[in-house]
Amino acid sequence: MRRYLVTLALLPVLLFAYLQLSSPPPLSVQWTLLSGGAAVEFEDFQFFYATLPRAVLALLVGGAMGLVGSLLQQITQNRLLSPMTLGAASGAWLALVCASVWAPALMANYGAWIAMAGASLSVTLVLLIAGSGGLAGLPVVLAGMAINILLGAAASAIVLLNDQYARNLFIWGAGDLTQTDWNWVIWLAPKLSIALLILLFAHRPLTLLRLGEAGARGRGMGVFATLALLPAALWLVACSITAVGVISFIGLLTPNLARALGARRAGDELAYSLLLGGLLLLATDAIAVLASQWTTDLVPSGAAAALIGAPGLIWFTRRKLTAADHSSLQLPAGVMKLSKTALIMLALAVPATAAIALLWSPEGAGSVSWRFGWPSDLVFSLRWPRIVTAAAAGGGMALAGVILQRLIRNPLASPDILGMSAGASLTLVLSVLAFGGSIYQAGPLIAFAGSLGVLLLLLLLGRRHHYAPGVMVLTGISLAALIDALVRFALAKGSDSAYSILSWMAGSTYQTTDGKAWLLLTGVIVLATLCALCSRWLTLISAGDQVALARGLNVKRARLALLFLASLACALVTAVMGPVAFVGLLAPHMAAMLGARKAPQQLLLAILLGALLMILSDWLGRTLLYPAQMPAGAIASLLGGGYFIYLLTRRRAA
After folding, report:
1. What is the DSSP-derived secondary structure letter of residue 84?
2. How many helices, marked H, and strands, marked E, lie in the chain?
């Protein structure tokens, strides 16, 4: 009771402070407006039709997201689950992007139902991938992360291909609570009334769930009783995203804070999460309003929530995870010895694919015809740097993936999943926001600083848990969400660099030059040579620290040197081409499946496979929708994300 009294007492204080942020009228005029008086001055209209509905909307959406987060976490008994990590937010967002571009009339009338359909499909896919046995641990979070990357790549590709229709999506996608009237409050409030039914009827099945599945069934509660709560949760998420866009982390942080403040019973946690969620989003939006006044630029509420929520998620990963979360995935079965035939065929496939990408291309705008032959001098000068950049980027990410998987002894490790690519992207985007200019002109040193910073954070957080997969992966998820929020903030500014940032974030070779292509290729060759010279270190460390120490290896120095090489490779690729997802995971796996079990073999084969995958992705992105083009990184994300989902599904089947 004391907890509720303190929170309820804090709510009007915070609400009053919030209403005084944006040049409000005198207090007497505010009271007159709240009592039904007419607005006269500009400050009166701003207070009554902008500030006040924004505050009410923050309380409504924050309370709904807090309630949904608590509901999902109690159903699955997983404290790291939320609309974001379950994939519901990305599914709803992709559905709304598609409707806004291709069916704006439907979007205007049935936006909530479209978002509901997208969220339902993505969550269903995540649940099918994770299985019932993976809901309480890391597998469901990994599945949600994979779906988020896949759907995010698809949404980015749609926005890039339809930029003339998607400009109004930028601020909305960043999660913004800005209002000009009471229409959205009037639209949203009745649709969120289902939260009251959840509070009234959900506490009993959730309480029985705490007894375990067998105990709940013994007391007459079936599985469908809890599954029936899921559509209600998705409806709340869909309506909230339709009204204000994507706001991450509120649904994740609020239930954890509620439990930390003493909420123990199921009904208590639901009710207190509802109250605390509204309070948390109101406070977060106050930070966004203040930042907008200081910077003279619009700071979306979603970006402010991510700035607070990402460190919060990292903090919660420091808590003890389940035993299943500390186990690593097993690679799919493959041959035990690399054949010379496979190596030769792969070595020939890379230049053959590069030749096809250079010589074979569509032409003509209407009925597309294909042409095979040497391109003109102009086309050649534009095409070969893209091919070289794609090949070098794939090889560099594969190199970093091999190093990380062997050092951490976990096949889940890769630069994008562990957040090293996100760290490099973060510093590059921040440099553009702070100092201006083009993101393509930012140097590799800036990207290296971000990648190295993430690496140090991973080492600091992972040491306590012996570099457990859960800690590593969830840190990467946090940083990826943070960089996504910052990018949406850059897009919401409406600057000339908005589309170049979005294109770069998709992993594009559009803006590469001769010099950048040669720089990346030379850097990857040098790093691969250094790594080959250190292959004995990789072999010994992957066998275990004790084995390496017994063979006379200084494990700490060797690990730091190899991690330095991985960070530099990731930074080079990210600075030139942008973040490339899943290649660092896919290429080492394929190399091991082809029989490359020794470190030198795996390095060579993974680099060739990564180069082949990226050349193919760049060619497909250039030709599939000709004359429109898709970034190579988006194609690689679809291919690699599909494999990652297969890996998770295979683990469930096993």
Report:
1. T
2. 31, 2
